[in-house]
Amino acid sequence: MNLVYADEKGNVFDHPDYIALGRSGDMIVELMEEELIPLPRGATLVGLPHTRPVFMDPDTGEMQMLSGNYQAVGALLPQGFTRLALPSYVKTDKNEKFPLFGYTSVVWKDGEFYVAAEQSDDPYKWDPLNCDRGDVRKGVELLTAKYPENRLYKHLSHCALGYECLTSSNTFLQRWEGGVPVSYSCNAGCFGCISEQPDDSGFVAPQTRMNFKPTVDEIVEVMLEHLKTPESIISFGQGCEGEPSTQAKIIVEAMKIVRSQTKQGYININTNAGLTDFMRAIVDAGLDLMRVSTISALDDHYNAYYKPRAYTLANVEKSLKYATDKGVYTSINYLIFPGVTDREEEIEAMIGFAKRTGLKLIQMRNLNIDPESYLQLIPPAQGEIYGMKQMLEILREELPDVVIGSYTHLPPAAARR
């Protein structure tokens, strides 16, 4: 497997004499053949600014840094693929931070690009190539004309057309999982928040957070337009908003109105689930699906990343268990990172968390973060680091009733509330 690297103009090369490597946390590691898959459709190769590639010399077995004005290359994977290793690199300027994306090791092998990854779900519904931008524009024109006073549709049109967000695009295509953002505030200060960053963070938020509180009528209009088929999903909690449960009052009221008019489709919430009382009210209003974002089942790691305000990981666990006990199909949005998620103590804690809460699904999501900043933020490893592939195998073995995937699944028909 050959080293892949790029020049300063973005031209990508492979080196026939040097062996490509990967990275686990802050350690450069060798890649195994069983960890590699062909570069998936929809993946993107990117140069890592202010870096030098690291490779192995096959003659000496030594790890070396590539000389010259070259930079390391990583792959940005589409949803449905779990990365197993980071690109191998050394930063030339430790003060520089990568943009907030999830970078995966990429190599050249057998005449094509390969990545250190594993397919963990069917990527069809979240493949950007399956989202016709012309149809999205037509949907935007149709629904914004039909509801000219609805600020949510105006906001979502920017997400769909400007950011090409697939969830908001689905809202206008009236298919699959569509979004209905409701909150401009949050009860956490996530280190890697994609919609709001403090001025001194050194990161640029890749999208803008909504800046208004929608009315119940605006929410109801979006929900009723989307919930027209048995398999449609409408979701509170989008990347362009804060924590949706901070607006529990209007969510509960909207849900009750919608469910008095239609039983079609599923109502989902993407949440940190820290506000347990509010989450109970939302569950009791008829919630079908709940996806809780977490990075760890260990308090010190969780607190370092999320910086929770007036709640703890114990509150999150209570919310999940309550929802599961009430028949909600519960899942976690598990933000994963090679060299961290596969630590012995992290695996043990997550297995216990899943069993106590009755989780049905773990959605593996590659953490979008600057690696050095993240590793400096969280506690160091306490035990063995197993590797991401083995971590996935352990979870499947220890949690046979939990689906390992990448995005929202519908519950079995028999489990519908």
From TrEMBL:
Keywords: 4Fe-4S, Iron, Iron-sulfur, Metal-binding, S-adenosyl-L-methionine. InterPro entries: Aldolase_TIM (IPR013785), Organic_radical-activating (IPR034457), rSAM (IPR007197), rSAM_sf (IPR058240). Residues 181-347 form the Radical SAM core domain. Its cofactor is [4Fe-4S] cluster. The keyword Metal-binding applies. It comes from the Bacteria. The keyword Membrane does not apply. This is Radical SAM protein.
